[in-house]
Amino acid sequence: MKFKIGDTVAVLDDVIKGKVIAIKNNAISIESSDGFSFDFLPNELVVIKENQSELSKYSDISNENLLEKINEFSTKKNAPKFKSVTKTDQIPPMEVDLHIHQLTESTRGMDNYDMLNLQIETAKHKIEYAIRNRIPKIVFIHGVGAGVLKTELDFLFKNYHVDVYAASFKKYGLGATEVYIYQNPKK
């Protein structure tokens, strides 16, 4: 990839973005939005051509989850107006918001690894609480982001006897996962 002075770039493995201020041999110097200078190799950077808020307007167009939800919705319009209601449909799901600002007062002194661990530990405690208390479903609100938390949650859910689905698009958008817990009958 060719870089030019003045290009807006982002670092692939870090949360740094800024403008290219110099290109020397195999190193590219950038000035971050905070005013700090950093040197990176070209394969560590990517040029940002569009503003993130502009991109988010169109990001769902080719998203498979969204297309599935749209198709599901359009087929439901033609479906009969009656539905069998089960007991678990009547119970509102337990909601767990895993956004970091909901879990701690301040993230000062925490790096991304610490924040992710707090989110995963919270999810683990909540799912175990639901199992103990025979709560049939939980909605974990994780947001869209880069998908790291969702991937870690999917890995966590493999340790439990549960079914995992995308939560209601109408209520949560693409940033939530619904978990149905298989309960052992009481003896």
Automatic annotation (TrEMBL):
<protein>
    <submittedName>
        <fullName>DNA mismatch repair protein MutS</fullName>
    </submittedName>
</protein>
<dbReference type="InterPro" id="IPR036063">
    <property type="entry name" value="Smr_dom_sf"/>
</dbReference>
